[in-house]
Amino acid sequence: MEKKQLTDYEKYIRTEELLALQKEEGHLACEDELTFQMIHQIAELHFKLIIQYLGIAKRQMLAGDAQGAANQLRRVNMHLKHLPEVFNMVKVISPIDYHTIRLALGRGSGQDSPGFNQILQAGPTLWEPFEQLLSAQKRTPLAVHQKPQENIELYQLMQQMIQFDESFQSFRYQHLQLVRRMIGLETNSLKGVPAQALQKGVRYEFYPVLWKAISELTDWTGSSYNAQPLQD
Ligand code: HEM
Question: How many CB atoms are closer than 10 A to CB 229?
């Protein structure tokens, strides 16, 4: 039989390969296994873009381009903001159907997601280049907060880094809510790790110094005004 001629769209997007990456209908543990597998694949694709943007942001910081790096991190944050939405698309699966899927997973665990683990590794590597940008301007995070307009590019980059940290924590928190809905938090996972271990991850920060600087700013302003009760 003659092979079907692919359109340029199919060739460029590689739809044939892409759509052959899911379990076939006859092999699904239940209908919703397709949703479960595809949402994970979609998440991995978002992770791939996030990793590329983080790499570019780091190179731009090293080249002294704070604004360019902030723009890349803005993109990262758009993806991280979107990801918790895809968790809602998994919550449509009933917990009982999920147990059918779970039996087909072997020892598969999101903990072994290559994309997620690369983001975990890449996040902290932005800190050193950021510190270099700060010291080139003889600034500390507190000093940048005190006079944002005088350090606007550094300030905007710092805000994107804080947003990245917050969005990544939110992603982990929303995932925890998904786990709570689907299997509960009082149980052991497939790798034998209590699901509650995820709660520790939710509290992990990439840039603790930046979070501390916000508190320092509050202490600094708090000490400069002597707050009085409002008059009636
Ligand atoms: C029915 C839905 C899901 C359940 C019940 C579930 C369950 C779990 C559990 C129990 C863990 C802890 C590690 C382990 O011991 O396995 C975990 C980790 C993880 N899962 Fe899921 N998961 C679900 C859906 C998803 C989806 C849709 C994604 C897509 C991004 C995902 C990504 C991850 C990641 C990245 C981790 C590591 C998280 C961290 O360390 O904070 N999971 N998952």
Answer: 5
**Residue 46 alpha carbon to ligand 1 centre in Å:** 15
Q: Would the pTM of this model clear 0.90, i.e. be above it?
A: yes
User: Is 105 touching ligand 1 by the criterion CB < 6 Å?
Assistant: no
Pairwise CA distance, residues 87 & 5, whole Å: 37
| Mean pLDDT over each residue of the chain, to the nearest integer | 93
Q: Decide: 79 in ligand 1 pocket, CB within 6 A.
A: no
Confidence check: pLDDT of 135 > 90: yes
Domains of the chain (ranges; CATH) run 30-106+113-215 (1.20.58.480)
CB-CB contact of 2 with 72 (8 Å) = no
Report d(CA 152, CA 4) in Å as an integer: 56
CB of 11 closer than 6 A to ligand 1? no
Look up residue 147 and give its DSSP letter. -
| Pocket perturbation via mutation, ligand 1, pick of 121, 175, 180, 196 by most ligand atoms within 8 A of CB | 175
